[in-house]
């Protein structure tokens, strides 16, 4: 296996997980659903083990096997009415960036696509500034696609491969991918699609989980990047290496600006979720144990709690790129 970004063979193992580790993300799923997902994961990996590794040359972090979740996997993993966010910080910063960008004063006539659009929170908002007929969305889930279509915005219930058609060539001046890139293993196909559908001088906005926050969590054995859901981890260096090699110029980036309290809360919840006691299903006893466990997490992880005060440990990382060829 070579690094998908720089093709180096030099990488080290950060952690190893087995197919049953995915149970940590499925606390509200039935036992039969969990077992079904575990079996799908084993078939994807052709085995029971997966490593998350770091390239020593470019710092890209990725799964081996480097295989993203299949349609069968996600159909089983997500419920039909998944709780999509009403609005997020990356939606907000992207909206402001689009409004403030130079489009010759004719933003209404620009064309935008949101790949992995959820239930359409962002495209609904941006439709106040860009004509709906110029907005497209891609959304895997039937529920999300239905909600977007009800708002009279064109939505394809498929993945990005469906965009490799003549009707989408050089069509979009604005491309958005919020919390999608870390789910994708076929990077060469992705960039082929992006370059196919984008106009010259297009702008692209991407959000991924924050590399530094995930590394900090790894240090205390909380591994939130769980293949085949998340199969990679990106930072500024890897964004530049991959996208600038493929015709996109790095413009700017931001780490989400969160309150210290919200970062502590997120850590405590994650610490509980990835602990052994999260498997306790007895209603009252389970809640009592959860309460006391969370109460004692902070003093026993005081150094990490202190580090969370650093702004670089926000939960998400936002990048803006511009097409240069």
Question: Globular, elongated, flat, extended or rod-shaped: what is the shape?
Answer: globular
* SSE series: EHEEHHEHEHEEHEHEHEHHHE
Kindly report the CATH topology of the largest domain: Rossmann fold
Look at the helices and sheets and give the structural class: alpha/beta
CATH architecture of the largest domain: 3-Layer(aba) Sandwich
In percent, how helical is the residue content? 25-40%
For the secondary structure, the number of strands is 11
Uncertain spans: none
Mean pLDDT: 90
Total number of domains:
3
Strand content: 15-25%
CATH superfamily of the largest domain: Vaccinia Virus protein VP39
- Rg estimate, integer Å: 20 Å
Question: Number of helix segments?
Answer: 11
Q: Strands of the biggest beta sheet: in what spatial order?
A: 6-5-4-7-8-11-10
Distance between the termini: 30 Å
Largest sheet: 7 strands, mixed
CATH class of the largest domain: Alpha Beta
Describe this entry's structure for a reader:
- The chain is an alpha/beta fold and 325 residues long.
- The protein folds into 3 domains: 11-77, no CATH class; 89-257 and 317-323, Rossmann fold, CATH 3.40.50.150; 260-307, no CATH class.
- Helix content is 35%, strand content 21%.
- The chain is built from 11 helices and 11 strands.
- The protein has helices spanning 31-45, 71-77, 89-100, 121-126, 142-149, 187-197, 211-218, 236-245, 260-273, 283-300, 302-307; strands at 11-18, 49-55, 61-64, 112-115, 135-138, 154-156, 172-178, 198-209, 232-233, 248-255, 316-323.
- The strands form 2 sheets. A 7-stranded mixed beta sheet has the order 6-5-4-7-8-11-10, with helices on both faces. The protein has a 4-stranded antiparallel beta sheet with strand order 1-2-3-9, with no helix packed on it.
- β7 (172-178), α6 (187-197) and β8 form a beta-alpha-beta unit.
- The longest helix has 18 residues, at 283-300.
- It starts with 10 loop residues before the first strand and ends with a strand.
């Amino acid at each position: 296996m070579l690094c998908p970004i720089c093709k180096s063979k030099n990488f080290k193992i950060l952690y190893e997980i087995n197919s049953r580790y995915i149970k940590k993300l499925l606390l509200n799923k039935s036992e039969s659903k969990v077992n079904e997902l575990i079996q799908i994961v084993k078939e994807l990996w052709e085995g029971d083990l997966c490593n998350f590794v770091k390239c020593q040359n470019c710092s890209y972090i990725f799964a081996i096997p480097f295989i993203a979740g299949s349609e069968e996997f996600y159909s089983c993993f997500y419920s039909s009415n998944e709780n999509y966010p009403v609005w997020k910080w990356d939606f907000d910063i992207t909206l402001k960036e689009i409004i403030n960008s130079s489009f010759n004063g004719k933003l209404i006539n620009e064309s935008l696509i949101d790949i992995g659009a959820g239930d359409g929170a962002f495209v609904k908002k941006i439709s106040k500034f860009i004509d709906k007929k110029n907005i497209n969305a891609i959304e895997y889930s039937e529920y999300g696609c239905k909600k977007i279509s009800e708002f009279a915005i064109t939505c394809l219930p498929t993945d990005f491969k469906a965009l490799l058609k003549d009707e989408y060539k050089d069509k979009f001046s604005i491309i958005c991918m919020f919390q999608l890139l870390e789910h994708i293993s076929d990077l060469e196909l992705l960039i082929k699609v992006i370059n196919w559908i984008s106009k010259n001088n297009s702008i692209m906005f991407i959000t991924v989980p924050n590399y530094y926050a995930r590394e900090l969590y790894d240090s205390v054995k909380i591994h939130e990047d769980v293949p085949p859901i998340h199969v990679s981890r990106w930072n500024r260096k890897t964004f530049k290496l991959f996208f600038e090699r493929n015709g996109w110029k790095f413009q700017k980036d931001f780490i989400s600006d969160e309150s210290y309290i919200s970062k502590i809360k997120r850590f405590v919840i994650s610490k509980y979720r990835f602990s052994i006691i999260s498997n306790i299903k007895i209603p009252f006893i389970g809640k009592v144990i959860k309460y006391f466990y969370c109460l004692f997490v902070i003093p026993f992880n005081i150094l990490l709690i202190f580090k969370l005060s650093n702004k670089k440990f926000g939960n998400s990382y936002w990048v803006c790129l511009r097409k240069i060829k």
